[in-house]
Write a structure and sequence with these properties.
nine-stranded mixed sheet; alpha/beta; five-stranded parallel sheet; 18 helices; globular
């Protein structure tokens, strides 16, 4: 994965970790930054020269939470809540063979790279359980595209309708009977599948690491969750879970256990360094105190939270407690653009939705730190996300001649408030340009367009029945979640309609 010896000259280098912005030359060797100096002052011998004049150079953006299985489902969702999305989950991620899994992952990897992202944390989903063949197809796709990735099998032993008390009973008789026959199978079979995947760790391509993702606390029985924690302990893996993403998830935890999902996980010994709480929308101060005390981290995913109407996560109290926070896009079924630049902008703006001092809003450099060093830390990639001697040479170059930077006033601020993917010209991962002059150097997206179209057409046929069934169930699941809003919670993450009701 490591690229050649390169001298990048004359670029405007901006490292959000230090707030430093200056014209510098960078010497890249063995995939790392070996020297940073004033223009013309590095003796680089026979190194390849890359002229970065009129380019802004930032650390590569890092996506702390996505789902590669959803990349073939761009545009399928309109006015989906989270519960609607979960109801449609079996067909959104179903009927996948290794080739389709590979293509779906590859499409997302190329998309992420084109928008300046150099690494991602993918919660890999296969229905009804992960397979070694499917998992290796995911790993191969990321490696072929040239992007780093942490891959976590996303697993559970309960379906949506067995996990949420009363949901199955709320369905009409015919749907209840149909859904009642569905199951994810034995949790032990899933654990065995995970063991076989983790046994292949040494076979993973360079740049690919592993984690585990028991998906949502109440979707996992206590026994199954303990088995997942045991796997994490034995294989030294991070644990990544969806935590209190929607209001319903927060109320279900209290109905099942009498405590918040975070307190439940703390009681079970799940929280620890390396634990990542994705979304973390419906958490109160006591929950944040627990996450901080156990040295957990949070993946903040504003685009998905807005798209699904889940609410707005309050990031400042997390940062005030020293909780590491990274930014993420989520999957293409709830964040179709897969754009970390969009995630950055929305995170900045969402921080202003709370009735707080402007000093509590996320500033430009601070937001970029969450998307670079912050997210890299969640991936365990502590030598990434920054521009420093010895850091990994994962870089994104922006065109300062692009209208986004005209006039050039404050480059970091303009990345947050103005830049989009059209101004990204080059992307380097481990010292190798995987995007050059706005074109992929690894795989031409046009070369796989036909294969992707064929895969989508096959899925449309194979999944027509499952999609139609989900369409019948969806209104009932959404109505159930809406009715559950009458249950009190100590916080609100949705703007009230007081005084605005018709």
């Amino acid at each position: 994965m490591t690229g050649p010896r390169i001298l990048v000259t004359g670029g405007l280098v901006a490292d959000p970790a230090s707030d430093a912005v200056a014209t510098r030359d960078l010497l890249i060797e063995d995939g790392r930054i070996r020297a940073i100096a004033a223009p013309g002052s590095i003796e680089a011998g026979d190194a390849i020269r890359h002229d970065a004049t009129d380019r802004l150079i930032l650390p590569g953006l890092v996506n702390a939470h996505t789902h590669g299985h959803a990349n073939l489902m761009k545009g399928v969702a309109d006015r989906w809540t989270l519960e609607a999305s979960l109801t449609n989950g079996p067909w959104v991620g179903g009927a996948r063979d290794p080739e389709t899994i590979y293509l779906s992952t590859l499409v997302g990897a190329l998309d992420l790279l084109s928008k300046g992202c150099t690494a991602c944390f993918d919660l890999v989903y296969e229905f009804p359980r992960p397979t070694p063949e499917g998992f290796m197809a995911v790993a191969r796709a990321y490696a072929d595209a040239g992007i780093r990735a942490v891959l976590a099998p996303m697993v559970a032993d309960k379906t949506l309708f067995t996990a949420i008390p009363g949901l199955l009973a709320s369905l009409p008789d015919d749907l209840r009977q149909t859904i009642g026959g569905f199951a994810l199978g034995s949790g032990d079979e899933t654990i065995a599948a995970l063991e076989s995947i983790f046994a292949m760790r040494d076979e993973m391509p360079p740049g690919i690491e592993l984690a585990i993702a028991p998906t949502i606390p109440h979707h996992c029985s206590e026994r199954f969750l303990r088995q997942c924690v045991d796997l994490a302990d034995r294989h030294d893996l991070p644990i990544h879970m969806h935590i209190a993403e929607s209001r319903l998830q927060a109320t279900v935890a209290r109905e099942l256990w009498g405590v918040s999902p975070v307190r439940r996980l703390a009681n079970l010994g799940v929280l620890r360094p390396g634990f990542i709480a994705a979304h973390a929308v419906w958490l109160d101060n006591a929950d944040l105190d627990l996450l901080a005390a156990h040295e957990c981290a949070v993946a903040h995913i504003p685009a998905s939270n807005f798209r699904l109407g889940a609410g707005i996560a309050h990031v400042r109290p997390m940062l005030d407690r020293g909780i590491p926070v990274g930014l993420a896009t989520d999957g293409a079924n709830s964040s179709d653009a897969l754009s970390m630049l969009q995630a950055i902008r929305l995170a900045s703006y969402a921080s202003r939705a709370f009735d707080s001092r402007r000093e509590d809003w996320l500033g430009a450099a601070e937001t970029l730190r969450l998307a670079t060093a912050g997210s890299a830390g969640l991936l365990g990639h502590h030598s990434g996300g920054r521009i420093a001697i010895g850091a990994d040479a994962d870089l994104v170059l922006f065109d300062l001649g692009h209208i986004d930077f005209m006039p050039l006033t404050d480059p970091l601020n303009q990345v947050v408030t103005a830049a989009d993917s059209a101004s990204v010209t080059d992307v380097m991962v481990a010292g190798r340009f995987v995007v050059a002059d706005r074109r992929s150097t690894t795989i031409d997206p046009a070369s796989i367009r036909g294969r992707v179209a064929e895969a989508v057409a096959r899925l449309a046929t194979d999944l027509a029945g499952a999609r139609a069934l989900a369409g019948r169930i969806e209104p009932h699941a959404v109505a159930f979640a809406r009715a559950a809003r009458s249950q009190p919670l100590p916080i609100s993450r949705l703007l009230p309609l007081e005084g605005d009701n018709p």
